[in-house]
Design goal:
alpha/beta; 11 helices; 13 strands; 282 residues; globular; EAL domain-containing protein; eight-stranded mixed barrel; three-stranded antiparallel beta sheet; binds ligand C2E; 24% strand; binds calcium ion
Length: 282
């Protein structure tokens, strides 16, 4: 779907059937998405380059509307942010991800982590830390298995506030991951003040990596980020890995973890259980 003028959203369902949805209609659809059970989570593996084992699964929200079909989170998350519905959706995602992980600890792997995306407005909410605490208590998972993916852009408005919240989150025992690293505007100097565990190198830097070109700008940036991670004792995770070449180059550069279509696409919960063993043997 793509945004059109005058607040209309144009959708393409199937091949040709196009129809338009007013923004307000869209908003009201989204308002009822949770109670109508239209939201679900997909999961994508993050693996270790040392042994190929799955370290964590990133939870990615999906919205399946009876008329609109699957609506991309790239579209409805911004709408949820603007309308404040993100509070409701974000809390649902957090609780559902933790609940699912608890189940998998008992059935597939007791060391698996879950990585949950946090939006800017959700992070700014005064009771955000409390919500995380509640999700941990409700699901009874060990906090070290919950990773929260934050972005640099969430910190720009009030860096000190951001650092304080991160510290409170760390006190709960969870891990903090910086998503889309390298695309934001925050200063590198903040990095030393952020209590970060994992740094996700944005896929835009990974896309053009190749074995025959170690001199490209992207290759230099990726190597620099990985070196910096080592210096800061932060785990380097490359996202958007789509080819074996990219994987081999990243391994060569000493990257710790990778995620992307080459390793595994996001899948529904039932499929995670089936696929789990093939991820191991890749
Ligand atoms: P993101 O957090 O950067 O997530 C990565 C996106 O890249 C996902 O798209 C994923 O499916 C896709 N991806 C994974 N591997 C590859 C690859 O190898 N190549 C390419 N081209 N793409 C890959 P998705 O699921 O459509 O999510 C888009 C964005 O929506 C996410 O970007 C995130 O910002 C947001 N989002 C998704 N789920 C949630 C959620 O539960 N809460 C919040 N606040 N935001 C979410
Ligand atoms: Ca993410
Ligand atoms: Ca990302
Ligand atoms: Ca992104």
């Amino acid at each position: 779907a793509k945004e059109k003028g005058r607040g209309e959203w144009e959708f393409f369902k199937g091949e040709m059937n196009e129809f338009k949805v007013e923004r307000l209609t869209m908003e009201s659809f989204l308002r009822h998405a949770i109670s109508k059970d239209e939201l679900s989570l997909y999961f994508q593996p993050q693996i270790s380059l040392d042994d190929g084992k799955v370290i964590a699964l990133e939870a990615l929200v999906r919205w399946n509307h009876p008329r609109l079909g699957i609506v991309s989170p790239g579209l409805f998350i911004p709408l949820a942010e603007e309308t404040g519905l993100i509070g409701h959706i974000g809390r649902w995602v957090l609780n559902e991800a933790c609940r699912q992980l608890k189940k998998w600890h008992e059935t597939i792997n007791s060391e698996l982590s879950i990585s949950v995306n946090v939006s800017g407005r959700q992070f700014q909410k005064l009771d955000f830390v409390y919500e995380v605490k509640e999700a941990l208590q409700r699901s009874k998972i060990d906090p070290r298995f919950l990773h929260l993916e934050l972005t640099e852009s969430m910190m720009v408005e009030n860096v000190q506030y951001g650092i304080n919240i991160m510290r409170e989150l760390k006190e709960l025992g969870i891990k903090i991951s910086i998503d889309d690293f390298g695309t934001g505007y925050s200063s590198l100097s903040y990095l030393k003040d952020f209590p970060i565990d994992i740094l996700k190198i944005d896929q835009s830097f990974i896309r053009n990596l190749s074995k025959s070109d170690h001199n490209s700008t992207d290759a230099a940036i990726v190597r620099a980020i990985i070196t910096m991670c080592k210096g800061l004792s932060v785990t380097a995770l490359a996202e958007g890995v789509e080819t074996k070449q990219q994987l081999l180059v990243l391994k060569d550069y000493g990257c710790d973890h990778v995620q992307g279509f080459f390793i595994g696409k996001p899948v529904c919960a039932a499929e995670v259980e089936n696929l789990f063993h093939t991820y191991h043997t890749k």
